[in-house]
Structures
1.
Amino acid sequence: MAQLDTGDSKGGKGGKVRSKKQNSSVDLTAMVDLAFLLITFFMLTTSLSKPQSMDLAMPDKGDKNKPEEDILISEERTLNLVLGPKDELKYYMGQLASPKEGPKDLTYTKESLRKLILDKIQSVPLATRTAAKPNGEPLIVLIKASKESTYKNLVDVLDEMAIGKVKVYAIVDITKEDNQLFGE
Amino acid sequence: MAKVKMSKKATAVDMTAMCDVAFLLLTFFILTATAKQPEIVPVETPASTVQVKLPDTDLAIITIADGGKVFFGVKAADVRIKTLELIGEEYNLSFTDEEKKRFSLMEEFGVPVNQLNGLIKLSSTDRNKEGVQTGIPHDSLDNQLTVWVKAARNANAEVNEKQLNFAIKGDAKEQYPEIKKIIDILQDQKVNKFNLVTGLRGE
């Protein structure tokens, strides 16, 4: 021990030089641990880096030369969401001049906006039940984004549409009257 | 009664095969991982709960960030070259093969057409410096974005014989009218369906 075996065997004990038997297997546990750690890292980062997308279909603008036809929709079915400045949000049912409900303030939260949409999607078909249509008519949501509202507000509302499974919704131009809801 | 002999088990397991597999997988993931391209402008996309992923092919991305600056990019490199050729025809500009090749490596860009040659000459680090790319003009006076959109659609139809999809990648803080402008530009060309790029909401 603690002596270099130089290989020469002159003199001394004159005995046989024994090469030490090396253990041929290496402990790979730590290496495998590291490898799997890296695998996990690459697996997670590759799948997460792909951005998500939200499909948005807008109605065709049609021919510019043709006069636009106004489509009349039922007041009871329309929920107007008006996106204002500084993350403000208001809603009313029907027309602004003679609203069926509201205008009231909302916030972009689960408790407020989502609750309203889930509530309306149930109540509107019930209210519009007729003999001809026993299931009633579905809810229509009109999204009116004001000039000061942000893109985030719009995506938030569209996301709520997807969550609430609202089939009929449209992004429409805001009117002067709607703008006045937020003062000025 | 025969004695039940407990066979002595070796405590060490042979790790060689496991190690091989682990490194094989590791190599695979490292090679397939796409490195994140440096962005010209940082874009903080709004979050949504939608799980649909953005398509990989036949896609053009219009980025709106930094107070209404617009950047444009096409995914496929061969379509990029074709788009540049069509733009060259439109504005009577000529590009050398070298310039086309350099352009095909650009993920997205945002300069007026007359500065395009200068931008292509820059190195990729210089290109992404702040203030170099000022956005593509898209107002009613000089609507170059419309021309780019048109060129990209024609190029994709020619190269891949497919419709080009458009994705809008807007910063969460962008004002709605800026987004509306882009939507209007797309709708004027009868592109009525597009993707909005969003991030993941942790819910």
Note: The two ends of chain B are 64 Å apart (CA to CA).
2.
Amino acid sequence: MTPTPVWRRALPYLLLLAAAILLPFTGSTYWGVIATRAAIYWVLVAGLNLVVGFAGQLAIGYVALLALGAYTTSVLCARTGIGMVPALAAGGVVGALFGVLVGLPALRLRTFYFAMATLGFATIVTQVALAWTDVTGGGVGVPGPSLPAPFDTPWGFYAACVMLAALATWMTANIAASRFGRALVALRDADVAAEASGIAKAPLFVTVFLFSGAAAGIAGGLFADLQTYITPDAFTFDLSVLFFIAILVGGRGSILGPLLGTLLLTALPEVAAPLVAWSTFLYAALLLLIVLLMPGGIAELLDWRNRRPLTQDRVVLPRPALLADLLPERHRAPALAVRDVRLAFGGVRAIDGLSLDLHAGEVHGLIGPNGSGKTTTLNVIGGFARPQSGSVVLGATRLPQGAPAARARHGIARTFQTPRMVGEATVLDNVMIGGGVTARAGFMEAALRLPRQLREEAALVRRARLALGAVGLDALAAVRCDRLQHSELRFLEIARALLAQPDFLLLDEPAAGLAAPEIHELGALIRALAARGVGVLLVEHHADLIFAICDRVTVLDLGRVLAAGKPAEIRAHREVVSAYLGA
Amino acid sequence: MPISAPEADLLEIRGLVAGYGKIVVLHGVDLAVRQGEVVTLLGANGAGKTTVLRALSGLLPRGGGSIRFAGAALPPADPRAAVRAGIAHVIEGHRVFTQLPIADNLLLAGYDLSGATRRARVEEALAEFPELAARRHERAGALSGGQQQMLAVAQGLVRRPRLLLLDEPSAGLSPVLVDRVLTVLRRLRAAGVAVLLVEQLIEKALGVADRVYALARGRVVLEAATDAPDLPARLERAYLGEVSG
């Protein structure tokens, strides 16, 4: 499958924009108002979509940010007399600040607990708006602001809203297609792999909450203009539900789906006017229908490409020669040393005084009976597990414990015992998740497609294709990852790890579930990696593979080193044979 | 055991068609397993081995064909019926209930057995894997990946099935443990249990099995007794034929 060209992906948006431009020519002010409202809602939903649809955080109280933006803009205009444009900007700032405040619990609370926290915040905002009569006018309310000419007429205001909606679409689509969008989805569907790829959750979430909060605040200011007069009653729970459900109906991880969802949910009660009283019921019914009939939402309905069958007899044929281009000649990294590490879970000693050295350009096998502490050792090196004593040292640097996202920058990448991928993303996107640490362009550079972002993105795509070629999966680049076979996922994880240009690669049972010819290819690939200067720590149970490709082997038993040495020495080691290899 | 053994087949699959949504993976698979027989199902990744097991245990709907088990037709897409009929399926990827203790994982595997029987069967299963028995009160999530695989196999034993389906039981197990699992299979066979084994370790699978089927592109391309003298050459052809096709 070839990737869809840009114009084909932009086509639905351009058609919608054309329809928006043509709408005034119908002369229907009634539909003009509805379209204006839809555009305003979409400015909010576009930002919220990054939080809900991409990051997977159930933020349902976003009407609170709409209210904050609306009151900030209106009160500034009415009480200080500044123009609506600076007041709108202030609304955006207030929305952004409170967006972070509402969002912060997401770093600790999961799913429904976070949803409840955002709902609670929405209630507080309405109560404050009611009680703080000096500023908000309480139940009486405050007049809404008005944009200066030429945006002070209904169609002028409509034009302003459509332009902002188009801007919101463009920016969020840019973010979604950048390393930030991929990182959000990775945190949602494969958080451990995301951290191992160097994606730090807290700073990314704060940035996204700032952005979506600002969008909601600006939407609030526009909303106040549209309403001409605002009271706390305008910010109902139903509105919050509409924003949230528009995204679910649209489908997570999509921009077009939630956009269509917003249009649908705004227009639906109008088309069927008697149903307005039933709107909550309607939303609920629509949501149930979506969940039951098409869990992927509108976006999945529009995804024809991934309903085409794939060829079944696919063979993974790595091309290690491509590694030369992917991993350029570098200074060899100093040795990675594990020093006297002890780690117990409860009363069980998982690792009991383990030391080992991993050298650049060397394949180091780590074997041992099940439960002997092999994966735990990888977790200590990868920063996922905090040992009670001992350290991991890279050259002269002592690596901090319990900070997995920082490991990628030290040149340490890994794969997992059960492959951890983003099933809904393409194979290419999954590989590119691994390359985020090498990029420098910031969030706003991504949102505005500035030159540095475009350069880095193009380089990332090129390297991701190289990595896919190197592991033998280039033919599947455009396929959704959840359509791949288990053996292909094993190679895909290696490609993702390679994109971080690691000095050290930790492989956790990469041959499990592979057929004999695939194991042979895997062995050649690992040797080629070592030849490029990568130090590989290989946890495996296929003794043949271990003895064929390792320079050095460490055998663990009960969290201690039972034996260490050259493969030939290990193969002849009496205790290793009886405890592990078998007769 | 000769292929022309007189006893009736325990499991008889005829013309099985199955897949995922509109994508058809199996194009008419015929396969039989007799009582007390270990049959291994080989083939490259993507050939449809796991799909056969899933269609058989009712985890996947069938697009066509029939399955007879112990003399009665097995209804499609009804995992409970398959379990009641005496089929246990150990799925790939050590999927155990990580939040529950090991002992509860095993008790759940015998969900509809009576209390006393269930406890006795759990002890039997634990006896095969002393490293699990020693940690029976710990959460399954605290086990290493390989130990979780051990637990998944133990779960398959609790119901004392008439037919045990094993999907890559060796994945993640150390060589000595793989041998132990295969020893358990030999003992099950002696007790009259039939086993359908999907495995990547071909040598070890052939070592324990009576008969072998090879699957390529959703069809059976080879059926043979494991003691057939020309088996290695025929298996190689079955695999190679798939690659070049």
Note: Chain B is about 40% helix and 25% strand.
3.
Amino acid sequence: MSVRLHKLINRPEDLVDEMLEGFCAAYSDIVRCGGDRLLLRARAKAPGKVGLVMGGGSGHEPAMLGWVGEGLLDVNVVGELFAAPGPEQMLAGIRAADNGGGVLICVSHHAGDRLNAELALDLCEAEGLDNVDMVLLYDDISSAPKGREPERRGTAGLFFVWKLLGAFCEGDAALASAKALAEKVRDNTRSLAVSLSSCASPISGEVMFEMADGEMEIGMGLHGEMGMGRRKALSADATVDLMLPPLLEDLTYQAGDEVLVLLNNSGSLTLMELFILYRRAAAKLAEAGISVYRSWIGPYATTQEMAGFALSLCRVDAQMKALWDAPANGAYMKQSLGGLD
Amino acid sequence: MKHIGAAELSSVIRAVSGRIGVESANLNRLDAALGDGDHGRAVGGAFAFAADEIGALPEPTIGDIWRTTAKALLNRMGGASGALFGVFFLRGVPLLRGEDALGKAEMGALLQSGLAGVKARGKANIGDKTMVDALEPAVAAFLEAEDFGSAWSGAALAARQGAASTRDLVARQGRAKYLGERGIGHIDPGATTVALIFEAIDEWWGMNAE
């Protein structure tokens, strides 16, 4: 039996445009709306620097709207609900991100995002836009086994890529080194998610998948794709205890490693729950001899009102720590000069 | 009828758009089990847009019609399916340069080029629980048939059987891949759309070929 939720929207067909209008009105000091459902920085980057463009379906707010700004992304190409934007819209985004230093298309790995980015690259070639490249980003360890990392999906942990790559491209980096940095962050990042409830499509109002009360699922992607398995819901501590070992084992994080930690709220968990979860994660990381350089807790990549969270780790070296602490000004990612110290 | 000209091709795209529009809610339901429940809305909207755009073209050639359909699917549908249905049409555009009518052999070549494009881009093969499970047998049946009429009916039947075969498969491409064995028992919506397209053309042919 299907369940319907009432969402506070107007006409479903206006959903994406009205959301963009509202976002641009609220954060007009940081971003502006271009045509073609492009979200741009209010002030463009200096000429000659690598432009960063990221396309994706909507419905995961504040991703990716909140990541456009100084020290972050240049352009977000906004797709329909949960659907990657098409190649011509991506091409418009690439042109808008082009400051003369080349453009890197950042693809959070899902079939639609990858295919449309590849087609956009074909269009660039046909139109003589050279100096454009793409990087495939992924972090979810539940979506493909170790050894088959390029098949994995992009999820909440790409948070680290946006921040570090954004900071890197404020400097005088070349396109190839920007891509190498993105790959370095990706290869040091791992995520695993847990969900406790489904969510409803804001278009149809219908619940997107069935989930019984008192169940939890480990390893669910951003769209509710089913993951590693369902089980009876556990306590906060037991949930973290189940998630950390496979995460730590996947990248062979070791004692002495320094990591950035993100506890991402998928939608409707309370901050109270997230702090309790983080308490356990921090204690277990300390037990393993892994030190936390910085931690972030909050709703950064959501799937509507789904109850759940993702735990993401990114192993950092001195270069990455400096990039993390570099200034950033996005609506949902702010870092003042010199970091938090 | 031995050839399809521009007027007929416009009419075919309208017929496909109409058929998918009628089945849109069913496609959404199929997609709700394996994806995010909007396939019918997305593909129906894109074909309707294509039909409108074609209707607004002054004296379009068959190449214009094929290209307009490709662009509508690529840019209006979104996601992986928009890219792949779009590529199916886009691949055929160079074959239509200077052509003003399609015989059975030319149509077969057009379908073959589209299939090759979809397989190359989507990296999917028969058995992966994707649109290829309906498209590949449909194209093969079309090519094997003696004449245009039986080619469409053979393709429609093969596409529907191919779509039905996805019910028992575990997806190896696309979003449904992450469902693993829990996708068993559900028919792939993209394969169903392929079947609807060929069925709509077959029906159109039955009503218009004489």
Note: The CA atoms of residues 236 and 277 of chain A lie 6 Å apart.
4.
Amino acid sequence: MTAAPLLPPTPAAIAIRDLRFRWRADLPPVLAIDSLDIQPGERIFIEGPSGSGKTTLLGLLSGVLPVVDGTLTVLDQPLHRLGAVERDHFRADHVGYVFQMFNLIPYLSMLDNVTLPCRFSRRRRTRALARGGSLNAEAVRLLAHLDLDDPALRARPVTELSVGQQQRVAAARALMGAPEILIADEPTSALDADRRAGFVELLFRECREAGLTLVFVSHDASLEGLFDRTLRLAELNLAAA
Amino acid sequence: MPILILAWKSLLNRRFTALLTLLSIAFSVTLLIGVERLRGEVREGFTNTVSGTDLIVGARGGQINLLLYAVFRIGNATNNISWESYQAITNLPKVAWTIPLSLGDSHRGFRVLGTTAAYFEHYRYARDRGLTLAQGEPFADLYDAVLGSEVARTLGYRLGDPIVIAHGTGDVSFARHADKPFRVAGILAPTGTPVDRTVHVSLTAIEAIHVGWESGAAAPGRSPDAEQTRALAATGALTPKAITAVLVGLKSRIATFQVQRAVNDYPEEPLLAILPGVALADLWSLIGIGERALLAVSAAVVVVGLFGMLTALLTSLNERRREMAILRSVGARPAHVLALILGEAVFLTLVGALLGVALLYGVLLLGGPLITDRLGLFIGMGPPSAAEGLLLAAVVAAGILVGLIAGYRAYRLSLSDGLLIRI
């Protein structure tokens, strides 16, 4: 389902042009991408071994790292023109993020972990309230979608949850307040092999329902077939070792 | 604001170490404010060792020397004042009262002071506090003695016990007036002044113990017994010829300098009149270094307490880098991370300082009577003074500084880590 090049282009969810990222001005670039477009609603699998610039790319997409050289437009926002505070705001409003593991803040309850983005983004707070009536109700709804609707489970400290449960709570948090982009950084690598596909299916279902663009990074090639498109970062990144 | 709720929940999660930090700050603040309060009280107590007395008169010599022997019972007078001069001072029109003091004998290392009933009536210390007897009565009989509280406590004396007064001021004296023992008639309440270390007898008694000792040693066979001496005293033959010093109270403070000049210009005898408050303040400026050292030490304790907090904060940062990366991923700015750490430090310092002050009041409430009883120091329960408020503000400011140092480090870490979870 690649974009048809001859049709008038719909605005891309993510568009990269002539991007070069250096840690220091006098060092060679660690990431060099001439052109990359990701369409809204697309589910992209980025396959990249360590050293291929994966961390750097995610840092740039989420607005943690500054774009100095080239352009990066996400949801019509030119991230290369925004300051650090604006990029942080942008991430809070538009990006959900799932880590490989240890996603949850140990001293917060499951519901507080899920509603956490609404403490930093008024937009996501408003959207979550519109959807669920209250933040907790929306969190419970999302958790139920991810097969975590047992109230007894919600009462437990998050540190006592299994790794798979923790990852699903993290997914619910990333979906809270319906951001447009979901970035998942090897979210299945801590899961058992037979549970990985199940987790990805759950993620897909939610993304489809909310019309999210999913950027999924992994080195587990067995999941590749489930996605719309695969990007091999080692080939895409001209600066890759 | 939501970041402060997170800071609070995070702190609750680490409640044990947080409590230890809190307590170390609280205890150091208790010590600091306690020392400040005690310091003020000690200075006040010292400069008010004698109060209500307008002038101290002695033989001409040094001002400090006169103060030392007349008030602190330290050292000796170079000369005495004749009884006639004492009478003349007492009869000056502006003089309200006088207390004669006669020194020179001792009892087991404690000075013996010969004086009159005026001593118990007019002597004042601290903020206009008079002498009160914890037990017994002022001296009525010739051989009655009234003990300072420390004398009674150290030597274990009770009412009615006999005591023997030695000639001279050494602890071990071969010249004891053993033929004329005294009886403990009263014991004074603690004052925290040299009064506590003094044995008080009447002026006549001082003369009486020296009957038959005119040559400086006991004349064999010529020393009358106690009953004979009592009879002698009744005739008025034991009126002293000289005394050591006089405490003078005036009818009006305004006359102080006028009377001082009159005494200093007294033609019959070279005399010296000093203002006790001025002399005491002079002396304090010499020996008051100790209290400043004490404050410096307690300030150092607070610094150590705050360093403890800094250590705890910086140590926790490494464990909390994951927490910070998660917060960053949901949209927290590095400034939020700084606020998280700063909020914790400010909370710990503020609550620690308040707890410390509360603890101090608790200690004063429970231990105050004991301190007054043992040390004669009366430590007030009033609200914190301006100086104490300033110290508290300095502690909180230092706590904020600690929070900024640790918070800035967290800020730098979260900038460099970004969304990287380091464990």
Note: Residues 2-46+289-417 of chain B form one domain.
